[in-house]
Specification:
Elements: E1 7-11, H1 14-17, H2 36-39, H3 42-47, H4 49-63, H5 70-81, E2 86-90, H6 96-100, E3 105-107, E4 110-117, E5 123-125, E6 144-148, H7 158-167, E7 170-174, H8 186-192, E8 196-201, E9 213-216, H9 219-227
The structure holds ligand BJW and zinc ion.
Ligand BJW binds next to α1 and α2.
Subcellular location: Cytoplasm
Active site: 109 (proton acceptor)
Cofactor: Zn(2+)
């Protein structure tokens, strides 16, 4: 990687699969018979808040039963050792990158460990269960919801991500199906700005044709092999 200084890494559900967190699409990707596209919407929250809260309460509780895997740890080593710019953009709402020790990262689709006030936009830590009726510390409204980016909502930090992609010498995509925009379009942006592109995924994805190189296999093997 001699000519590489600025790196953007995009991660998806596939990087957490070996930790035991189910991916969204493919086997086991349904939740109580609902497609993620049907549960993770502002309309679903308005229609059946209890269902949506239960979905996320279970996912939040499951975080306590999983650990970062070799792929998360390899990216944390990259973060610690890399002298150039690095931004790890995760679509995941779990906290396995930070528990592995990564620091230069952001959660573009929100976080299970965070609550969002729909009245004032305040985000705050959400550790255990949040009983219905809990009020926002900033504005006092009882309007807290999971701090998750639903379909039709704008992902977080898009400006920062686009600036990093414009500066990137290398874009690496790990464990994502390329089915959900805008993340699915990052490879095209990276190519447009002249970055090298590498995909590490279990199988070919919707975006594979855009990448200069695709390596197929489990993230727990491919990511350490790439980093070390
Ligand atoms: C392994 C592995 C192992 C397995 N090792 N690999 C039509 C066309 C284009 C766009 C749209 C459209 N209609 C609507 C849109 C926009 C929409 C969209 O893209 N929809 C598509 C379904 C078509 N996008 C949005 O709405 C986004 N916002 C937006 O566009 O804002 C702009 C805007 C706003 C308002 C008005 C106008 C414009 C928001 C998207 C939010 C996504 N949210 C979710 C839910 C998060 C909460 C939760 O976790 O519950 O985010 S959906 C879900 O999918 C989650 C993920 O982050 C996201 C991506 O999934 P990911 O990570 O790729 O997982 P999988 O399961 O799909 O793939 C896993 C991969 O890993 C597979 O390839 C496996 O092979 C691989 N793998 N094991 C390595 N061991
Ligand atoms: Zn508030």
């Amino acid at each position: 990687m001699t000519d590489i200084r600025n790196i953007v890494v995009l991660t998806g559900a596939g990087i957490s699969a070996e930790s035991g967190i189910a991916t969204f699409r493919g086997p086991g990707g349904l939740w109580e018979g609902h497609r993620v596209e049907d549960v993770c919407t502002p309309e679903a929250l308005a229609r059946d808040a209890a269902l949506v809260h239960r979905f996320y309460d279970e996912r939040r509780a499951a975080l306590a039963r999983v650990e970062p895997n070799a792929a998360h740890r390899a990216l944390a080593r990259l973060d610690a050792d890399w002298d150039g710019e690095l931004l790890i953009v995760t679509q995941n709402v779990d906290d396995l990158h930070e528990r592995a020790g990564a620091r230069r990262m952001l959660h573009m689709h929100g976080e299970l460990r965070s609550a969002l006030c729909t009245a004032c936009g305040e985000r705050r830590a959400w550790a255990g269960a949040l009983p219905p009726g809990t009020t926002c510390e900033a504005c006092g409204a009882a309007t807290l919801r999971p701090d998750i980016v639903f379909f039709g909502e704008m992902p977080y930090e898009m400006g920062r991500i686009e600036r990093a992609l414009a500066q990137a010498d290398l874009f690496v995509s790990i464990g994502t199906s390329g089915a959900v925009y805008p993340a699915a379009g990052f490879v095209q942006l990276a190519v447009h700005y002249g970055a090298r592109t590498l995909e590490l995924n279990l199988e070919r994805s919707a975006g594979s044709d855009w990448f200069e190189e695709t390596r197929l296999g489990p993230a727990g093997v491919l990511v350490p092999a790439w980093v070390d």
